[in-house]
Amino acid sequence: RITDHTLPIADRDTRESPVREIVKELKEFGVEAYGYDPLLSKEEIERFDVKAFDNLDVKIKMDGVIVAVAHDEFKKMGFEDIGEFMNAKPVLIDVRGMFDGEEAKRKGYYYKIL
Predict the structure, then answer these.
(1) In b/e form, how buried is each residue of 39-75, taking b as 16+ CB within 10 angstroms?
(2) Where do runs of H (alpha helix) occur along the chain?
(3) Residues whose CB falls within 8 Å of the CB of residue 87, separated by 6 or more in sequence, listed in order
(4) Looking at residue 14, what is its pLDDT?
(5) Which residues contact 62 (CB under 8 A, 6 or more apart)?
(6) pTM here?
(7) Would you state the pLDDT for residue 13?
(8) By three-state DSSP, how is residue 48 classified?
């Protein structure tokens, strides 16, 4: 399972968001996608064809996380915070380059920056 975070930086206009294409491609591989964005309603998130979370108090474990926007809430998160809702071999895709890739790898993440 993969959760994604959506929206262009500081912009509530989701029409140009790359997340739609990311979700489409993931679903072609049978990935179950979830979404969370502190600036969007559950209904707005579900328009991306994902199951929406109301907050990051996630009860299921994810195989990977795609951080697609640099919201302040996400910038404050550390690897330990992200690890709370990740499986044993976490995958972190960092679309905005918000995280230190070397530190992510030291902490056991498979890390890619797009």
Answers:
(1) ebeeebbeebebebbeebeeeeebbbbbbbbbbeebe
(2) 19-28, 42-46, 72-75, 79-83, 101-106
(3) 61, 62, 63
(4) 59
(5) 1, 2, 3, 34, 85, 86, 87, 90
(6) 0.79
(7) 54
(8) coil
Q: Residues near 97 by Cβ (< 8 Å), separated by ≥ 6?
A: 113
Per DSSP, the three-state class of 2 is strand
Site of tokens 């498979």: 110
Domain total for the chain? Answer: 1
> How deeply is 13 buried, as exposed, middle or buried, from its count of CB atoms within 10 A (0-12, 13-18, 19+)?
exposed
Quick check: 35 and 6 in contact, CB under 8 A? yes
Tokens of 76: 């404050």
Residue 91 and residue 38: Cα distance in Å, rounded?
Answer: 22
pLDDT at 111: 96
Mean pLDDT by 10 residues, the chain (114 residues): 39 64 88 87 89 83 86 84 87 90 95 91
CATH of the domain at 54: 3.40.50.720
